[in-house]
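CO-FOLDING WORKSHEET

Operator: S.A.
Ligand of interest: zinc ion
Run index: 255
Mode: holo prediction, single chain
Checklist:
[x] sequence pasted
[x] SMILES validated
[ ] output reviewed
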Amino acid sequence: MQLVDVHCHLESRHFSGRLDAIIDAAKQVGVIAFITCAIVPDEWELSQTISHSFHEVYFAAGVHPWYIKNQYFEELQKLYAITDSKYIAIGEIGLDAKTDIDIAVQKNFFEEQLIIANDLNKPVIVHCRGAFNELIASLKRIGKINAGGVIHSYSGNADIARQLMRYGFYFSFGGALTYRNSKKKLQVLHHIYPDHVLLETDSPDIPPVEKSGQINLPENIIYVVKAMSELIGKDEEEIADATTQNAKKLLNLNI
Ligand SMILES: [Zn+2]
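OUTPUT RECEIVED:
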């Protein structure tokens, strides 16, 4: 089985000093590529360094809505200056209604980063929680994202998914899916499988139910495949193939 973890945070302090073993363990279960997502400008260089330490790691750079600081706005321009074949997306960026940062400020950061992604012809990796109306509104203002994107840990409904697909979006699923308790997610999967589905771990966050309470690891992606297989009644192999093909296509992975 070949898998791509399209969303993890290998920069995390939880992983420092043991990335070799963590990446090896994930490779053992079939992970052939990892997309590590930086969340603040201070992390961009580290993401780049990690991606050069491991053949299978690619990186995205951006400012995550939870960690916005006014002074980061100017630093966004530095996203233009990174020249690196492993720099494959702008992310993690997005909108979150459940954080303290003013949603108008979040929109400024988000839309600026969408514009940068379009200028660089890179896909976007998007976090969206409780703010799908605002997300669609931003997309209406900016227009289609040329290289497409992914909504990570997708929590919206099938109708919103249909609208987002028109803007070039795919949807990735991780640990939350393993709780197997969401009718909404099942409906969404029926609409988007197989052409718009991706897999992720968001490690070190959102562990699967089987590893509840632990630091999440990229190797736990196998629990996501298992849950998806049970939910939609398709073989794990078939899901692995479809999601890996989608990841290669969207993220232009040379694997
Ligand atoms: Zn994340």
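REVIEW:
The longest strand covers residues 87-96.
The domain at 3-251 is CATH 3.20.20.140 (TIM Barrel).
[x] output reviewed
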